[in-house]
Structure formats: structure tokens, C-alpha cells
Amino acid sequence: MIIGVPKEIKNNENRVALTPAGAQELVKRGHTVYIQHTAGEGSGFPDELYVSAGAQILPSIEDTYGAAEMIIKVKEPIESEYKLIKEGQLLFTYFHFASHEPLTRAMVESKATCLAYETVERPDRSLPLLIPMSEVAGRMAIQKGANYLEKPLGGKGILLGGVPGTLPAKVIILGGGIVGTHAAAMAAGLGADVIIMDVNLQRMRYLNEIMPANVKTMMSNEYNIRKMITNADLIVGAVLIPGAKAPHLITRDMLPTMQNGAVLVDVAVDQGGCIETCKPTTHQDPTYVIDGVVHYCVANMPGAVPYTSTLALTNATLPYAILLAEKGWKQAALDLPELKTGLNIINGEIVYEAVAQAFDLPFVPVEKYLQD
């Protein structure tokens, strides 16, 4: 198969979808790998490393899309890329369709096959291609939150872990999944007073067993959220419903009850955000303030640590990319059912129900395309 890796062009996105090691694994299996010129530089992988691994360098994004049967990316295509996508081309990347109607409609019109990292789901409900970036984002949420709690950056001027004779910051984490768990571990390690709020008692029992003593769990409901946010210093939104838009757990009317200089970090922004006042921001302009509350809602947080993120992502995606290249998307999805759930759009039809429901668009069961 001919595989293309374009350079990411979303604002301050420095990751690349494939490392030189990943390219070598595909090439040695007989596949052709095209890397757009300088695609890996932001992650610390110059063109020379890809050439040494057997890949070929193409000068432009147009050449890369034009040559490839399968495009492997990190972030969803942006508007300038829509016209480059070909009918029948396989796109393997993060899409987060349910939060972006123009992208959804553009991919329907392209008649490409869209296989989304974030909805590849194993029988145990785990999301193997979302986990590595969730781990990075969860840890970064605390780093960034601690940073923006500093007074010069708009925060209330509190040190996350405090010092002897002072109280540590109060951190609320909405959601006890991968993002929430890593955020809690990071915050706890810095000495903060942490509460994880979730709706799954079994998950909370597990978290109680593995987390240090300064992490507590609490049932997530509107009453408890309203009560707890009034004295929170840092709140991390870490809610995920696979493939669907995130619910608003903190609503606009709650903000006036919060402390001036408190910080909200909404990691769910890719899926529409679990904080009603959330709107996507960039690393270039990451925050805004509403009612005295600092909002950090960068939609590609792991892009700020591209070397770590690219390695972690390729570790997870490469086995699937190899299978797709070896067998094609249809046979791969038949052989490995978790890839079936990754299929979101095929030949102009939405085959992932949550995406269709988000915009009241027609839905076609994916089985239509997987019949022998």
C-alpha cells in the first residue's frame, strides 16, 4: 500500500503521525511510505532519519495527499485540506466528528473512508488509540493548571502543593478515566488536595485502592458539583463518551459561585467540552477569563510536547496501521472487530451512530460495508 504522512498544519501542532522507526516497519513489509518535507521536524525527526528508514520525502502536502492510498495523521484535517482528500482514500487519524459539523459534512462529501483513532474500541471498552494521548493530556492538565494559578497569568496566586504552614490547592477532577487518573496522580504527586468525581462506583473503588491518601473520590452529580466548585482552585474536565459530544457538567450559571482566579482546564474540548463556557483555544492564545475564572481549553494539548507524544502515539497506532496496510480497511475490520468501531464515515455515509445523532444526519450501519 502507498502510505502518506502529511505535515500537521493545525495551530502549533508539532506532532507527526509516524516516527522513522514506524516508517521502517512499514517499508520492510513492502509498503511505500511518503513523508511530507519537514513533517517530523517539530517532533525532533528530520527528513534524513526517514530517508535512512526507507521512506521517501515529498515536497508538499498536495503531493502527499495525491500519492497516498492511506493517509496517517495526528489531528483532523482542517479546511484547507478538505479539497485534497480523494474519494476512496483511507484517512487514519483523530477526527472527533461529534464536535465539528463542518468537518463531518466535508468528509461525507469527500467519499473518503474515515477511521477515527478515538473510537477504536476493544471488547473491554478500552480505547487503545486514545489512551496514550489521554495519558499525556491528563498529566499536562495539571502542569498547565498549576502554571495558570500563578498571579501574573491571571490565577489566584496559589502554589499547588503549598508549603509547610499553608494549605495546598484544592483540585477537582471531573471523570475518573485515563485522563482523570493521570491528572489525579500528577496533582497528588505535587501535594495538592484532590477529589475525583465520577458516576461509576466500581471505578471509584478501584481509584480509592490505587491512589495516595491525598486523593478522594466523590459521586458526580449536579448537586455535588455545585457544592464542590465553590472552593476549588483548579478543575480539570476529563469526561469522555466515546465518539459523542461531552455533556456540560459545569454550566454558565455556576461560574459566579467560583473563586476569582480559579482555573478550569477542559481536556474534553475536542469533544465539545464538559464545561459550557469552553471554546477551543490554541497554544498561541491558550486562555480567556469569564467571571474571574481562567479557562484553558487548548484542543491539542499533547502537541506542546511533540517528542513524547509522537513516540507514545506511534507505539499505539503502528500495529493497526500495519494491519490496514497489509489487508485493507475492510478485511482488517473483519479480522479485528475493534477497528470496526473506528470506522466513522465510508463512501459518503456516516456509519458511527453517535456522529449521525450529533447533527441529525442519516446513519447507515457499518455492516453494510463489511458484508462478504
Automatic annotation (TrEMBL):
Provide the alphabetized UniProt keywords. NAD, Nucleotide-binding, Oxidoreductase
Indicate yes or no for the key word NAD: yes
- Which reaction equations make up its catalytic activity? L-alanine + NAD(+) + H2O = pyruvate + NH4(+) + NADH + H(+)
UniProt keyword Cell membrane, yes or no:
no
Question: Which residue range or ranges hold the Alanine dehydrogenase/pyridine nucleotide transhydrogenase NAD(H)-binding domain?
Answer: 149-297
Residues in domain Alanine dehydrogenase/pyridine nucleotide transhydrogenase N-terminal?
Answer: 4-137
Stated EC number for the protein is 1.4.1.1
Positions of the catalytic residues: 96, 270
Q: Which residues bind NAD(+)?
A: 134, 198, 203, 220, 239-240, 267-270, 298-301
Could you mention a single GO BP entry for this protein? L-alanine catabolic process
- Entry's SUPFAM superfamilies? Formate/glycerate dehydrogenase catalytic domain-like (SSF52283), NAD(P)-binding Rossmann-fold domains (SSF51735)
Binding of substrate: at which residues?
Answer: 15, 75
Pfam families in the cross-refs = AlaDh_PNT_C, AlaDh_PNT_N
Which domain of life does the protein's organism represent?
Bacteria
GO-annotated cellular components: plasma membrane
GO MF annotation list: alanine dehydrogenase activity; nucleotide binding
Do you know which NCBIfam families this protein is assigned to?
alaDH
**Homology family:** Belongs to the AlaDH/PNT family.
Q: What is the protein name given in its UniProt record?
A: Alanine dehydrogenase
Organism this protein belongs to: Anditalea andensis
